[in-house]
C-alpha cells in the first residue's frame, strides 16, 4: 500500500460503492450468501492479500484477516471490524465503514512503524442485519455460541431456503477458505466456538445511527451501552372473504387488528420514551378484492432497560389482544430474538476515550444492536467507536458521514489498536 | 355425452378440482396466462370438443365455444359463461361454476331435444379477478372496447411483466386457436371489438357472494344491479430510517399513516352502510429494523350509488391526508378502476325470473363486480343468475355451494337459454 491514507481509504470506499446498489433508490441490497456477498468477500480477501494478512473463514460465513507479528503471534489477538451485509435498501456506511476503517488503520499503524505485540485481526461477521434469515447478528451469535448450530441450521429466508442449504450452496463466496488450526478461527461448522480462546478484546467502529455526536460537536465517540432490543413476530389470523359482498359487521379482518396494533405500538413507545416499529409485513392472500386471512407483522422494540422493554412489549401485546377480541381475529406473538442490555466494559471505554489531543472522546449509549454487543455478552472485553453522522439517518439510502470524519475515525481506530496491542 | 346430467356435472367439477389448488390452504391460485391457466383452457377446449362446439379465441385471452344450429347460425348469439381465473387463494366456485353450468346446460337442452333458433356460445373471459394485472374484468373490458388495447398493453403484473408480453408468451394456452371470420369472435388483437355485432344477449351464472338467497330460502335468483365499485392505489411516502436509533418524534413513518387510514376506511364504510377494504399491501424496504420509506395499499370500495361511493372515498382520502400532515408523510391516491352503477336490463330480469314452477325467482342486487356488468354497460342486454351460497363466504378457500343447488342452477340456466334462444 504505497499511497497516502486518505487516498487508500477513498479507493477502498469507491471500490465498494457500486456493489449491490440499487439504481432506483441508490440504496444497498447486500444480503448474505448471495452473488453480491461473494463480490464483497472477494474484495475483502483481495484487500487482505495486498496487505499480507492471512484470511481464515469459519463454517458460518464469518471471516478474519490476521496481521501476525513475528513476536507474539501465538498470543490472543485484538479483533476489530464490522460487517459487509446491509438491510434491504440500506446505506453505504452501516457495516462497511468499520471494515474499511480497520484495513486503513492497519496501514496507518504500519506507516507509523508500529509493530503489535499480539495479532490484530480484521473481522467481517455474517448476516449482522438479519435481513435474510430474520435473526440479527447471526454470524457473531454462532461464533460465540450464543446461538447453537442446531437451532440455526433450519432458519429459513423469505424464499424458504434454510441457512444450512444457503451455506452449503455458497461455493465461491470465500467460505471454503482454508480453515485455521482449530478447524477454523472460530472452531468452524458444528464444533464448539473457540472465539474467546483466541480473542483478547474486540473493537467495532461504526457510523453513529443518531445525532449524539452532532449535538456534542465531536467527530468520534465511544459506546457506553446498547439498549435492550428484540424482534417479535405478530401473526394476526382472521377469515378471508369477498371485499365487496361481506357486510362490514360480518368481517373478521386481521388487517384492522394489525392497523390498530401498529398505532398502539407507536403511541406506547412515544409515551414511555422507548422505541417501537412495525417495518415488515406479509399479507395473505394480499389481493385487492379479498379480506385477508392473515397478516404477519414484525415488531422491532427497544427499551432503556430490560424491564422497560418487557413493559413496552406487554403493553402492545395487551392492546393487540383486546382489539383481536373485538375484531373476531386471533393473535399469536413469537419473540424471534430478544437481546438484553449490553454494558460495554467501562474500564476499557474509559481507557480508550481518555488522554487525546483536543480532549476526551464522548462516551455515549446507542439504541442499535451490533456484533460488538454479542461479543461483549459472551464475556469478551469489547468497545465501540462511533463516527459522526450529520443527519443521524441510518438503514436508509440517505445514511451519510463526511469523509473528514471518516478519516478521523481511522486515526482514532489506529490509536485505539495501538493502545490495545502495544 | 352419454351420462346423466348430475354425473356429467360432477365429473367436470372433479376434473377441475385439483387445478391450481394449494395443498396448504386448499384455496385456488389460477392466475391468467400461466401454466395452470393453460390447463384450465385445455380442459375447456376438450369439453367443447366432446360436445362438437367450435372454439374461437380473440387476441386478449377470451374464449367462446359455439353451439351453432343448422338454421339461424348467422343470427346474433346468446352468450353464457363466466371465468376460470381466481383471486389469490380463492374458492372453487367463483367463475368455474358459471362455465361448468353453461356446458351442462347445453347437455340438458340437447337431452330435452331443444334446437336453438340462434347460436348459443359458452364464454370464458380472461382475468376477471384482476389478480395478476390489477384491473378486474380485463378480458371483458377489452372485448367490449371499455378498455383500449393501447391503455392495456403496458399493464404490468407484480413481477413487472407487461400484459402484451404475457399474451405473447402464452403459446400453448389456447390463445393461438384459429381466429373466426372477423379475425376472432371479438375482432382480435388491436382491432375494434365486434362483440355487440355478434351477441344478442349475455347471461352469467355465478355463485352468490352473500346470503340473500339463504335468507329468502331460494336456490337461485336473478341479479337486479351491481353496486358501483372501484380500486384505488394509496401511495404513502415517508422517510426510511433506523428502527432503533430514530426518536419516535423524529420519524416520518408511512406505516402509521397507512394504519390510521385502514381503520378510518373501516369506520367510514361501517357508518355509511357501504364497503371498504384494504386487502393488498406492499411495504418498502420491508425490513424489521427499518422504518419504511413507502407503503402502497389498495383500497377496494363499494357504494350503493355512484354518489355514495364517491363520498366514501372522499371521506377516507380526507382522513388519510390529515393524518399524513401530522405524520410528516405524503399521500398520492390513484383510482386504478372505477365502475359506475350497473342496472341489468329490468325487462330481461323480469322475463327470466317469472313463471317458474314453485314461483318467481327472487331478483336481488349484488356488491360484487362481474363481466356481466361490463357487457351490460356496453349496451348488451345482460342478466345474471345466482346460486345459493350457504355461508355467503367468497374469495376464500371456504367458499361453497351445495351440489343440489348447483344442479338447480344448471336447470335454471337451461330454462333461461331456452327462453332466450327459442
Q: Explain this structure to me?
A:
The structure is a homodimer of 422-residue chains. With 422 residues, chain A is α/β, with parallel strands linked by helices. Chain A has 2 domains: 5-227 and 341-421, Zn peptidases (Aminopeptidase, 3-Layer(aba) Sandwich); 229-339, Alpha-Beta Plaits, CATH 3.30.70. Chain A contains 13 helices and 15 strands. The first copy, chain A, has helices spanning 5-16, 35-50, 96-111, 138-144, 149-152, 163-168, 195-198, 212-216, 254-272, 306-327, 346-353, 371-377, 403-421, and strands spanning 54-57, 63-67, 77-83, 120-125, 199-207, 220-226, 229-237, 241-242, 275-284, 290-291, 294-302, 330-339, 342-343, 363-366, 382-387. In chain A, strands 1, 2, 3, 4, 5, 6, 13, 14 and 15 form a 9-stranded mixed beta sheet that branches. Chain A has a 4-stranded antiparallel beta sheet with strand order 9-11-7-12, covered by helices on one side. A two-stranded antiparallel ribbon of chain A has the order 8-10. In chain A, strand 3 (77-83), helix 3 (96-111) and strand 4 form a beta-alpha-beta unit. In chain A, helix 1 packs antiparallel against helix 3 and helix 3 (96-111) crosses helix 13. The longest helix of chain A is centred in the last third of the chain and has 22 residues, at 306-327. The two termini of chain A are 22 Å apart. The relative contact order of chain A is 0.17. The model of chain A is unreliable at 178-193 (pLDDT under 50). At the A-B interface, strand 8, helix 9, strand 9, strand 10 and strand 11 of A face strand 8, helix 9, strand 9, strand 10 and strand 11 of B.
Amino acid at each position: 500500500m504505497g499511497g497516502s491514507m486518505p487516498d487508500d481509504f477513498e479507493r477502498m470506499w469507491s471500490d465498494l460503492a457500486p456493489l449491490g446498489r440499487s439504481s432506483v433508490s441508490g440504496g444497498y441490497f447486500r444480503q448474505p450468501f448471495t452473488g453480491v456477498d461473494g463480490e464483497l468477500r472477494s474484495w475483502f480477501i483481495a484487500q487482505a492479500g495486498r496487505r499480507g494478512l492471512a484470511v481464515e473463514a469459519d463454517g458460518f460465513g464469518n471471516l478474519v484477516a490476521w496481521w501476525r507479528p513475528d513476536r507474539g503471534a501465538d498470543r490472543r489477538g485484538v479483533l476489530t471490524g464490522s460487517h459487509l451485509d446491509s438491510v434491504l435498501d440500506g446505506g453505504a456506511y452501516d457495516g462497511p465503514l468499520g471494515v474499511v476503517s480497520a484495513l486503513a488503520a492497519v496501514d496507518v499503524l504500519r506507516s507509523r512503524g508500529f509493530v503489535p505485540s499480539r495479532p490484530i485481526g480484521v473481522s467481517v461477521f455474517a448476516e449482522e442485519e438479519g435481513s435474510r434469515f430474520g435473526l440479527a447478528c447471526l454470524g457473531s451469535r454462532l461464533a460465540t455460541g450464543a446461538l447453537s448450530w442446531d437451532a440455526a441450521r433450519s432458519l429459513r429466508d423469505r424464499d424458504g431456503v434454510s441457512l444450512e442449504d444457503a451455506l452449503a450452496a455458497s461455493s465461491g463466496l470465500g467460505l471454503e477458505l482454508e480453515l485455521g488450526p482449530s478447524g477454523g478461527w472460530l472452531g468452524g461448522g458444528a464444533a464448539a466456538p473457540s472465539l474467546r480462546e483466541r480473542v483478547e478484546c474486540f473493537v467495532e467502529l461504526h457510523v453513529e445511527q443518531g445525532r449524539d455526536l452532532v449535538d456534542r460537536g465531536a467527530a468520534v465517540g465511544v459506546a457506553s451501552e446498547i439498549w435492550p432490543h428484540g424482534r417479535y413476530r405478530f401473526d394476526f389470523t382472521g377469515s378471508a372473504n369477498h371485499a365487496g359482498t361481506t357486510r362490514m359487521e360480518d368481517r373478521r379482518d386481521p388487517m384492522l387488528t394489525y392497523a390498530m396494533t401498529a398505532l398502539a405500538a407507536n403511541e406506547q413507545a412515544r409515551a414511555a420514551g422507548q422505541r417501537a416499529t412495525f417495518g415488515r409485513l406479509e399479507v395473505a392472500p394480499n389481493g385487492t378484492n379479498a379480506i385477508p386471512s392473515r397478516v404477519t407483522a414484525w415488531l422491532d422494540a427497544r427499551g432503556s432497560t430490560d424491564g422497560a422493554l418487557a413493559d413496552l412489549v406487554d403493553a402492545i401485546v395487551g392492546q393487540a389482544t383486546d382489539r383481536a377480541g373485538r375484531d373476531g381475529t386471533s393473535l399469536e406473538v413469537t419473540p424471534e430474538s430478544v437481546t438484553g442490555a449490553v454494558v460495554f466494559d467501562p474500564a476499557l471505554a474509559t481507557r480508550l476515550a481518555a488522554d487525546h489531543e483536543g480532549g476526551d472522546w464522548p462516551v455515549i449509549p446507542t439504541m442499535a444492536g451490533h456484533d460488538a454487543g454479542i461479543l461483549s455478552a459472551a464475556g469478551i472485553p469489547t468497545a465501540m467507536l462511533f463516527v459522526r453522522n450529520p443527519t443521524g439517518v441510518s438503514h436508509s439510502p440517505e445514511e451519510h458521514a463526511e469523509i473528514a470524519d471518516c478519516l478521523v475515525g481511522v486515526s482514532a481506530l489506529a490509536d485505539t489498536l495501538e493502545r490495545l496491542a502495544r
